[in-house]
Structures are given as structure tokens and as C-alpha cells.
Amino acid sequence: MLTTILYRSHICENVSVKSLEDMVSAASRRNGEADVTGILLFNGTHFFQLLEGPDESVSAIYKHICEDTRHYNVVELMRDYAPSRRFGKSGMELFDLREHDRDDVLQTVLDKGTSKYQLIYDDRALQFFRTFVESTEKENYFEIPPAGSWEFIADDAILPPATVTMDSQTECSFAFQPIVDPLAREVVALEALLRTPDGGSPEAWFAGLTGNESYKADLDCKKVAFAMARKLNLREQTLTVNLLPMTLVNIPGAVNFLLQEIEINGLVPEQIIVEFTEREIISRLDAFTDAVRQLKAAGIRVAIEHFGEGFAGLSLLAQFQPDKIKINRDLIRDVHKSGPRQAIIQAIIRCCTSLEITVIAVGVEKAEEWMWLESAGVYQFQGHLFARPCLAGIPAIAWPEKKIPFI
Ligand code: C2E
Fold first, then answer.
1. Closest-lying ligand 1 atom to the alpha carbon of residue 222
2. Full-prediction pTM beyond 0.95?
């Protein structure tokens, strides 16, 4: 199988342009032996490279490139497969864009096309070349500092965790995980995550429940979430709970039940956010939209979680606008290294900014993921980087502190 990888990266300050020539001749030898084509563009700050050849060789060379300390912020832009080569000659060629006319570079790249049918103008790889040469995407290159430039210091103000024990009749428990604005050092909300009494996952708790049973149980267990919130003395803190969308549709009086339990536990509707997963098909969208209106009319805010993964996606935003959406870990994972994830998240942010919907990133585990997302305009985060869910308690939060460089 023939594989094409395109990436861009940032040159390190201490790398001289002269040393690039040595790098290119070494790479040319290595690529030649592996039957891989390399076309490298350099604009004085950024590299842009195409690698094309047998899948295993291209992947091995790309892995080696990612580990090279002469550049950083390596972002994979495209990984594609083709029946035959776009570019014929194996080895490595460098074009320094400061020394060549843009149109000449593009024409030279095009002339290198050796596919059976001439390299076509709307070929994705070629379009990527054009975009780089013309610098039209430059405002989307977020140059994030190395992970080690921040340290994460646990907030000991709430250590040890304030745990709460429910009576033995209670058949479920909740773990609490904060959603934070790290630079403002603010806890935006606490999310109550369903657990079995011994701390098992929501899937484990729902296992065995079928049809309407699971909707009824989903609603009933919120009683425990609100009671735990009262015992944890949340005061005005925003509390987020989860519901299957069809719970609101299938269980008569669901909204009134929630309002009643909120009041019994000394909370107010304005501090509650109900999150709906987008993973479940909403079969009666009108009834669901109506229930959401009732929640909002009572002062409860609404969020869509796992946004972009499920059945409704963007069309759900056209039907009703939530106050918040949560982007799931599948898109967040290694976002700093992935061009496709960056493009999708930027589109979600643009769309939500136009609609004044807050975006929350979920499952943030790495400092680089957090830094890239902050640069892109996300300010609210939930993830192990800051705090793990704590069973029946509020965990300590690790706040980021910028390291002062050693002089
Ligand atoms: P969610 O609301 O998006 O909750 C976040 C999930 O991501 C939680 O999984 C949390 O433990 C996990 N998480 C948070 N930070 C990280 C991280 O940095 N890395 C990784 N790998 N995971 C992280 P959990 O508790 O297993 O919940 C999974 C999903 O179950 C929730 O996603 C929510 O959709 C659903 N859920 C939770 N409680 C309830 C409930 O009471 N009712 C219903 N219907 N669904 C619930």
C-alpha cells in the first residue's frame, strides 16, 4: 500500500539554516534506501513536508521525524493512501521559499507529478502545498511552548477530599469532577458522575436495566446526586448532572421531579446544568425540544456532551441551542499533533462563538492538549490533568503555574 503523510513543524531557534543542507542529504540517503519520496518546503520558520512510499517505511520515517529535536510542534496534516505514487523519485528535495518565487515552487512540485494520470489540480496533497506556500492558514498555527514550561500544583485547600456517606439503602453513588477555567483559577462547575455503590462506571450501573427501566432509574438516581451535593455543601457552586435525552421524553413529569429534588436539597435551578449525551438517538425530537424548553423556563441550563460524535451533530444545534457543548476525549486526544482534529475543533469553536455557546473540552490529560485548546479559544476544561473524579467527594485541583526560566 502506498501511503502519503504531510506534516508541518516549527524550526528550533538554535538550528542554523546551514545545517539544514546536511540534514537534507542524510534524509535523502535514508529515504532513497527506503524507497520514500520526500519534498520539504521551508519558509524560514516552518517546515512543510510530504513523505510518500510504502506504508511501513513512511510510518517509520515519520516517527523518527517526530522525535527529531531540531523542530517542534509537529502537526500531521494528512495521511492518505493511493494506488500509485504522486511523485516519482525517491530521496529528499528541499525548497527554501525565501529563495524561490511561490509560483515557481508550485509549478516545480506539480511537474514532479508522476501518477498515471497527470497530478490533478484538486489533489489534496497539492492543495496543502499551495496553502503552505501562500501562507493562507498561518493564523491557525498555534505555537505552544513545551509541556515542561508549566507545572501543575495541587490545590491543597480542599484536601483531604470531603467525602460523604449515603445510607445503605442507596443503590448508586456519584463521583464528582470539577470543570475548571485554569488561567482564571476558577471552578466553573462540578459534574456528578454516576457510579455503582463500590465506584463502578455508569455502564456497569446501567447494565441489566432495559427499556423504560433505565430511563426511570436514570431520573431517580438524580435524587442521590442532589442529596450528595447538599451534604458536600456546594453553596452556589454550579452542579452538572447527566440524563439520557429520552429520559425526559419517556418519563412523565420528569422535569417536575427534578425541580422538586433540587428544592428539597436546598439548591436552586439556576445552579443546575443538565447534560444530554448526543450518543442516543432522539427519536421524538419535538417532545425532547419541548422538555428542554420546560427545563429552561424553570432556570435550568442545558449542555450537549460528546458533541460531534453522535447521531444529531450540528443539526441538533439548529433545533435548539444549548448553553454549553462538551467536546469529548476522542477529539481532544493529541489535538496538538493532529491537523484533522484541530480543523474540526476550530470549526466547532467558530460555530459556537457565533451562537454564544460555551465550549468545554473533556478528557484533557496532557499539558500540550490544554495549551493548544487555550490558544484556539477554549477556556473551560475537565480532565485528569486538573482533577480526576472523586467518589462521593470533591477532589483537589492541580492548577497550572508557569515555570520561571532558570537564568
Ligand atoms: P461525560 O459526562 O462526558 O463525563 C466525562 C467522562 O470522562 C467521565 O467518565 C470521566 O470520568 C471521564 N474523564 C474525565 N476526565 C478524563 C480524562 O482526562 N481522561 C479520561 N480518559 N477520561 C476522563 P464516566 O464517569 O465513566 O462517565 C462516562 C459517561 O457516562 C459520561 O460522560 C456521561 O455521558 C455518562 N453518565 C455519567 N453519569 C450519568 C448519569 O447519571 N446518567 C446518564 N444517563 N449518563 C451518565
1. 41
2. no
